[in-house]
Design goal:
The chain is 47% helix and 4% strand. It is mainly alpha-helical. The strands form four sheets. It has a two-stranded antiparallel ribbon. Strand 6 and strand 7 form a beta hairpin. The protein is globular, with a radius of gyration of 26 Å.
Amino acid sequence: MSSLARRCAAVSALTLLACTEQPAPPLPTSSPLVLLSPVERLARASLAVRGYRPSLAELEAVAADPDRLAALVDEYLRAPEFGDTIRDLHNDTLLMDLEAPKFIYPNLGPFADATYAQLRAIMQEPLRLIEHVVVTGRPYTEIVTAPYTMANGTVATAFGLPHAGAAEVWEVTAWPDGRPAAGILASNALYQRHVSAGDNYHRGRANLISRALLCHDYLDSDVVLDTTINLADPEVVAEAVTKNPSCASCHQTLDPLASYFFTFAPKDYPNAITRYPYSGYKPRFAEQWRTTNKRPPMYFGAAPQGLAGLARAIADDPRFARCAAQRFTSHLTQVPIEDLDPALIARLQTAFVDSGYDARALVRAIVLSDAFAVSHTEAAEAADSTVGLLRMRPRQLARTLLELTGERWSTLQSDKISGVPLGPVDLLDNDTIGYRVLGGGMDSYYVTRNQTTMGATSALVSRRAAMALADRVVEHDRTSPAAERRLFLKAEVTDAAEPMVRSQLRYLLARTASELVAEDDPRVDEAYAMFRDLLAQSGSAVRAWKLTLAGLFADSRALYY
């Protein structure tokens, strides 16, 4: 039995809950670390990079020759799903993947009958730009210096951008209003999501950029607040941020950084948008800092000119490369940034810069490192906890089930919410009528962090998705020719003879949990015992296969990696 399998052995292999409902404790550094086997490392790399498990052929290739791991990782970095991972990774900090109606552009004009899915695409404009930079191997600095953006038909219509392809195709395009070459710093959607209200004077936007791109969050600063300041008096506040030491310690650099963003409308909620195309770029307001915060644009003591100058200063800042190494490592290993090994980050930062800021090289270095392959410590092994294991996020689970079954857990709900048609809904990637947050994901507004452990609701969501798609794939394979079947390649859905059932179960364990086992392995024994009992109770091999497969999909060893 593999080390990962032993970690969940205290829970029945076919349970529909998960290893634990409590947050896993951090790895105890006093106990030696135990690394995953080559096959387990492949599974973790595949799920982290592509969002679904390796094929049987890939597992067997690495089992026969562990040196094949690196070549397969290179293949994963070229997979279309790698782009999805890059968007998810950057949404962790940019928080652009919204569904709440008040943050979606209004249904009017060309979008009078647009679905939630169409309008949701508008908010993904900066994430798609980052994805393009990464998957095409362009220098990562281009996410802040690019003279272009990305648009599909919806985004092009919303912002008046050129778009020549099919409506659903994302393509490189240019802003027609002369805004500077500043990548995501020139994004309509970014500033529509992160508004600046009242006397904030773009400070929130400045902290977003500092936090996301430099890993410097002003809200985490160790400052003793002066509670005698009358925050209700704008004149008192304006004086305090320059003269009061408690305030000036942050505002000395925050306010000049914020002054770069006056070129974008401060607060345009949907009811402020009365027609399309819409542009939040307002260069005529660039000098408003003179009458508001009265701090000329500066970048931590330097004075780059305009938004393009700011973008170049960020790209050249060593903190930019270091922050990228931290955010990529944190997302892929599910370890908080503050808990990452500084020595590891320093090595990754150096390799990243030496690669010409190729983010694919950074991802490769992370997933092939021993830090990525930690399974547990010897102490954790004795305690049989989930320390060191990574848990599937809802979108990883959705991609995994799609790859296994050929279908999404979705509905064709035709009702409207707030007058907006829903259209087909992926229930693991939707919060309006779906279960993304309940499944442990984030909605990028009220919930801004993914869960890394299994709770009651996420266990139930996993169980329900497993049952729905197990039913669908069994029905599909029951009525399809052998060459078109998706999962039942070793036995017919109607087979109940033990040799055929064991052969099929062995295959299913490899596909659902990335475990290569013999047909007389205890895990196959356990699965076969369940199938046999279900067959006896229902009298139907088809019914027994549906329930057994649902158990395998929702098993702890399928949900963790």
